[in-house]
Amino acid sequence: xxxxxxxxxxxxxxxxxxxxxxxxxxxxxxxxxxxxxxxxxxxxxxxxxxxxxxxxxxxxxxxxxxxxxxxxxxxxxxxxxxxxxxxxxxxxxxxxxxxxxxxxxxxxxxxxxxxxxxxxxxxxxxxxxxxxxxxxxxxxxxxxxxxxxxxxxxxxxxxxxxxxxxxxxxxxxxxxxxxxxxxxxxxxxxxxxxxxxxxxxxxxxxxxxxxxxxxxxxxxxxxxxxxxxxxxxxxx
Length: 236
Prior knowledge:
Mean pLDDT: 81
Strand order of the largest sheet: 1-3-2
Number of strands: 3
Low-confidence stretches: none
Helix content: over 70%
Shape: globular
Number of helices: 9
Strand content: under 5%
Distance between the termini: 72 Å
């Protein structure tokens, strides 16, 4: 019974994260226990526990006399998330390079190829990217490093904002190129921890640069749109 109850709680948590990532639950949105329980066909108690867990993870914020909301992450925090992941996942990749089996290598290679074959602007690439990095964490087996357990949450937040940025890329003319995952697998295949660590660190720093470029493009486009609207209203 305890295992089933725990599994159900994790399922509610996963569904919540998925809805955030897909834009069905938006930053700044007020969350009601009753409506969420009805939506997912679970008890209010399960929803309450999930909301508390998400608040502890920094994804939600509770405001006195106002309610619980999806927290808005600012641009600087978004870039800091990439810096955190670069440090943490360097440790992961080094460990994976030491212990990975040929079967796991083949699995990672397939995931990398699937990810990199999807166009940069396609939101499906974000999901495959998520699967690749999470599989790396699972293979590492580094379950006793407390901060490592945060990687999934950090990646979920990145995934949610990548989704929003991907939608806004439709308003820009410049393509955004993301780093190749196959290079990570090639480094891990050599069973060289230092090389694997350096390659994934470079991968995530390049991803950070791409995200920063996205932000600048979007800001520029939005500012241009605002000026255009102002000019239109200024005409007689």
